[in-house]
Amino acid sequence: xxxxxESKYIKKSFPVTGMSCAGCxxxxxxxxxxxxxxxxxxxxxxxxxxxxxFDPDQVSLEDLKSALQGVGYDAIIEEExxxxxxxxxxLKAFNEIKRSLIGSxxxxxxxxxxxxxFMDWAIGKYISLPLSAIVLFYxxxxxxxxxxxxxxxxxxxxxxxxxxxxxxxxxxxxxxxxFAEFWTSRGLEAHVYYEAxxxxxxxxxxxxxLEEKAKTNTSSALKKLVGLQPNSTTVIVEGxxxxxxxxxxxxxxxxxxxxxxxxxVDGTVISGNSFVNESMITGEAIxxxxxxxxxxxxxxxxxxxxxxxxADKVGGDTLLASIIARxxxxxxxxxxxxxxxxxxxxxFVPTVMVIALITFIVWLILGGENALTQGILSAVTVxxxxxxxxxxxxxxxxxxxxxxxxxxxxILIRDAxxxxxxxxxxAVILDKTGTITEGxxxxxxxxxxxxxxxxxxxxxxxxxKSEHPLAEAVIQHLKGEGLDKIELEDFQSITAKGVKAKFxxxxxxxxxxxxxxxxxVNFSAEQNKLVQELEQERQSxxxxxxxxxxxxxxxxxxxxxxxxxxxxxxxQQQGKEVYMLTGxxxxxxxxxxxxxxxxxxxxxxxxxxxxxxxxELQAQGKIVAMVGDGINDSEALAQSDVSIAMGxxxxxxxxxxxxxxxxxxxxxxxxxxxxxxxxxxxxKQNLFWAFIYNVIGIPIAAGLLYPINGFVLNPMxxxxxxxxxxxxVVLNSLRLxxxxx
Length: 741
What we know:
- The chain is α+β, with helices and mostly antiparallel strands.
- The protein has 29 helices and 26 strands.
């Protein structure tokens, strides 16, 4: 294809409604791909979104929508409120499934009691019939609709198996209710199987409910990211302030930012100065000083000062908008663990149907006197014993126990996907600030050369008036010493150097080395040696002096968490490569990495750099876990195979992540990987038990033992075997509760 023709194609994402399983997603994908003018397309069932790369000269979004409507689905192509409409559709689907689950459960109880304990009660079957009909065709109607939709396209899924087994069991029961003499005249009992049909619907509805519950939270992280941008802002028009909506801001506008306000768009400072909290970009707790000519970014938060800047990037071009887009794209690339079950069901269903048909034909040919009746019963028995109840419970029950076990150990898990992949992780990326370190600067050491309460009170008072982010660390350090605030004179903030003030006609300085050098403050050999040692340790140094001599040196740093080194050693013992990524300087990053035993370090990274590094590792075939706590980590978290947030981190990091470690103890990280291993082992065991009954039961149900010993499996016994398979799956899941992490 030529470059010219390639340039014609545009890529668009849009929500799709009406999908109930991974088979539906495959149907949507194939429909889009087969539409004329579409180069490529894909569907994500977890987020109910699709994308298509198409030639707008040959096909439009309206055409794609029409194509999907033609096969029973729909698309939301209005760009302005597509996400809101999709959320409404998902919420409606969730509420519908919840209502169906509650309704079917209430009506199933009396049917189950009658079928299991009062099976000889003559009136019982006439009570069970209408209750079962409501459960199947009203509360469980979506299974039959889904099965019909799949059948129209020559496909089969879990809905097909549920509809087929329950439909035949119900139909046979209705026949036996009104035409019992058909069987009794032939010396056979006319059993009804209403309880089997309704229990299947109720249990499978429970699995669907758990699945949909996880899906309803997919957009919350994006909402909070969007919420970082203010709705309005103050612009300077002909020297006057005017408040306008954020959507009206154009490139080149002059915007005034006041203390405490969120910065609306990306730009360059043209007057004034302040400190800006850029933790959403860098993850660093220390705010950054902004003066004329420096860049600022949408979503970051201004501190105490005011400034005017020129808008450089607005709308979808801002750094915040790109983070939102990347998070959305990375989230859309996920698929739930349930797709494995749907794939198995896609093969399992037609296989069972063929076996049931073959069973009927073989009995018809070789069955002798009762060939027809035994053929029907055996075929139905095959379908009943092959019911997917245990299959439907295999994943959700193990996940429920695994999630509960995690909660007991301070590990919150959002979905099955993270548990599915976590035990496969071989590369772990750790953010520095707030993950390995505490995320809050504090005074690590202090050296006083003229220590008395008056001198300390002067420093305490100066730092209380300072806007520098490190000042808060000094204030908190001195707060417990009972110092008084002193009235200072001539307080001045000196850009990029520090502050100075007067007390009793004496000038005092607080800031960096450059400030003291400018005022010709001398250092002794001992003091110079101390400074060199602190710089080698890569500490942030605050100098306090008067006009003549140095009064104190304070070293400020972000403390490493207590269990960080041990946790990282445990991860390395598990065979995982550990990487540290940070927006901080190379020197500080290397110092922290050396202390905790990490060999692979990347520093001075933007959010996109972190996300790109995750992609690099994934391109090498690694299964990557990202652990972070800040807004700046959200891109990388969304891109990673397993995303883990620290519980004391930002809401957005927690929302994007599929796992959250409550508190700040990194020891929970190795536990999370172990939890994944035992839960996935439980799911595999459950799937084994769910199928072993079919492997053994289906041949017996078909009549394999009849030529040997005359044994024919009754559908009622088949129903009991099906129920026992479900019980064994649940009991095996509960067994996980007793395991230690």
